[in-house]
Write the structure tokens for this entry.
Amino acid sequence: ENNNNNNNKTLTYITWNVWFNEDLKVMERMKAIGNIIEQNKADIVCLQEVTPFILDLLQNGEWYRNGGYQSTILPQHGFFFGLRYFNVIITKHDFIRDSIQFKPFSNTSMGRHLIITPIKLKHNNRIIYAATSHLESPVGVHQGGKKDKFSAERKEQMKYSLQLLDNKQMVENDNIIFGGDMNWCRPTKNFENDGDLNKCLTKNWVDTYYKLHPNENGYTYDAKTNGMLAGYLQNRLDRVLYKENGNLKLKQCMMIGREAIPNLKYTKVFKRKNGNEEKLLPVLPSDHYGLCATFDIV
């Protein structure tokens, strides 16, 4: 098989929050996500909001078996016991299993955690590190959260993650890609929110989408363009970060999963003053768009 993106010369990395909602066409959505992973010939896939049932659907997909993929296995004890959803890293290369690290965030009230794993590439035996996380969600007071929408927690989680990823005892080289749902809320006219993520990044870290598309808004959560959603929220919540001082050279980063699944609709009920209104809406793979970054290995 020699069609694998020139095999050992490039690396394709996807991050995607797959939306834990199992009541909204979850089988069709996971099939669509699998198809997109397969089309992009992804080497490493980092997923957030994975439930046990969703993981089962993904691992039983044809794309997963045909691609020779394998997944991280979440610990089942302590902090990780009974989590409603979690993060997963999937690769078609080889995990160095005894070196996978699952790091709970000490300040989370939402079960949030960081996964770091070394991956040995099959074609050239290089070690690449993959990391993923789902940082604290921006839940405001009206939804039972906090006034700052957990901004302080998110910043602390980002800082802690970068500290671990910069630690040579944890990550032994600079070939590291850290992607995930950072829930990063950009500053608006009236609110600082989480500020500019670039100011939080330590030496050599680069935000891939921003680097290549500095003038685009890059909203990965976009209620205005995602026909499955209602509302007005738009934010560049998801990021792929990498270190530019290793053997990875950034080639491209694009959004994926922006098209509705053909011939599929669902009924959404809107509560109105004079009773409920039902609307037939399209179904997209997730409430988030994914990010797909490609690197040359030099």
